[in-house]
């Protein structure tokens, strides 16, 4: 998330585990079931004696009958595939993400630092007085398949190859990484046209967050847009006469903004990367545009995308079912 003071944009990083814990603490005990892989989904039409429902079958053999199914199962969503949404696409870029921990404090200011190079974009951002989140975005390379499952190899690839030429302050943070919080994965997104026109709701089934509109991270709106989804979805369900109508209203409300976020994030990342997998001459032109025009005039306008009011929740209206 971000804050805005005058014309200055300031990023505020949030620890993912702390956010998930805070959300889970608001639920009744036992509400969350862990390690439950979804295997299949079956829709049961409404009859004169019962309302429309969805039956979920889990890998452990459990069967759940739900009045509403909201798929928040990430970029490789089983629910999105069942609905018929287009498969996520590779952006041609991958990202290495890490968390460095300083028990006695790191002493850095609460600000983001970004370093640009040919085909490389790296940065770091303190998330607390003792933790620093860092990342490195690279044009996808074959070594990723070999190293991605081994944190030691990932760290070596950053310090000795991909990021070896980056400033010492960045490499010092990387070398202090907690290996349990290190990953290397391709950046995926859903075609904006697929978000705009795809079937994101069917009866009492829909999707939210990355399951609906996976995007590359350049605008830092992946998690923020999922929270927007939650507010709009809750409001739509509270105002609708039936769950199906509520889900349809939610999708109609979110399509436009989600499509814009996906498109802006992809284009912004492509430009900041200096053009992903382009010929030398094209890359030179893109980098010239990035350094002299994009960051000065275009990105501040795109950043306005962050300042969005999705409205308030309202008192619940009784459903007819």
UniProtKB/TrEMBL annotation:
Which species is the source of this protein?
Aegilops tauschii subsp. strangulata (Goatgrass)
- Residues crossing the lipid bilayer are none
A Pfam family in this protein? FAD_binding_3
InterPro entries of this UniProt entry?
FAD-bd, FAD/NAD-bd_sf, MOase
Its domain of life reads Eukaryota
**Xref: SUPFAM superfamilies:** FAD/NAD(P)-binding domain
Question: What Gene Ontology molecular function terms does this protein carry?
Answer: FAD binding; monooxygenase activity
Q: What is this protein called?
A: FAD-binding domain-containing protein
Outline the extent of the FAD-binding domain.
28-262
Q: Which family does it belong to?
A: Belongs to the 3-hydroxybenzoate 6-hydroxylase family.
Q: Does the keyword Nucleotide-binding apply?
A: no
Sorted keywords for this record are: Monooxygenase, Oxidoreductase
């Amino acid at each position: 998330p971000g804050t805005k003071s005058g014309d200055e944009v300031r990023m505020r990083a949030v620890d993912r585990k702390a956010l998930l814990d805070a959300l889970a603490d608001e639920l009744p005990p036992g509400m969350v079931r862990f390690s439950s892989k979804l295997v299949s989904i079956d829709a049961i039409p409404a009859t004169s004696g019962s309302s429309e429902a969805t039956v979920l079958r889990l890998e452990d053999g459990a069967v759940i009958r739900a009045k509403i199914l909201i798929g928040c199962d990430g970029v490789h969503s089983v629910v999105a595939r069942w609905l018929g949404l287009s498969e996520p696409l590779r952006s041609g870029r991958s990202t290495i993400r890490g968390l460095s921990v300083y028990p006695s404090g790191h002493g850095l200011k609460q600000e983001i630092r970004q370093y640009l190079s040919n085909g490389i974009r790296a940065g770091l951002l303190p998330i607390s007085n003792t933790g620093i989140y860092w990342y490195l975005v690279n044009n996808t390379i074959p070594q990723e398949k070999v190293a991605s499952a081994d944190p030691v190899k990932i760290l070596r690839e950053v310090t000795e190859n991909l990021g070896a030429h980056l400033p010492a302050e960045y490499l010092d943070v990387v070398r202090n990484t907690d290996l349990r919080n290190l990953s290397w994965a391709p950046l995926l997104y859903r075609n904006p046209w697929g978000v705009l026109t795809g079937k994101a709701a069917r009866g009492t089934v829909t999707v939210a967050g990355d399951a609906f509109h996976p995007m590359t991270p350049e605008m830092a709106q992946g998690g923020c847009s999922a929270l927007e989804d939650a507010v709009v979805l809750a409001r739509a369900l509270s105002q609708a006469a039936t769950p199906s109508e509520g889900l349809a209203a939610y999708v109609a409300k979110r399509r436009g903004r989600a499509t814009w976020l996906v498109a802006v994030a992809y284009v912004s990342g492509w430009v900041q990367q200096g053009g992903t997998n382009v010929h030398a001459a094209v890359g030179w032109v893109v980098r010239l545009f990035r350094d002299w025009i994009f960051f000065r005039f275009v990105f501040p306008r795109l950043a306005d995308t962050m300042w969005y009011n999705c409205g308030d929740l309202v008192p619940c209206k009784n459903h007819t079912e």
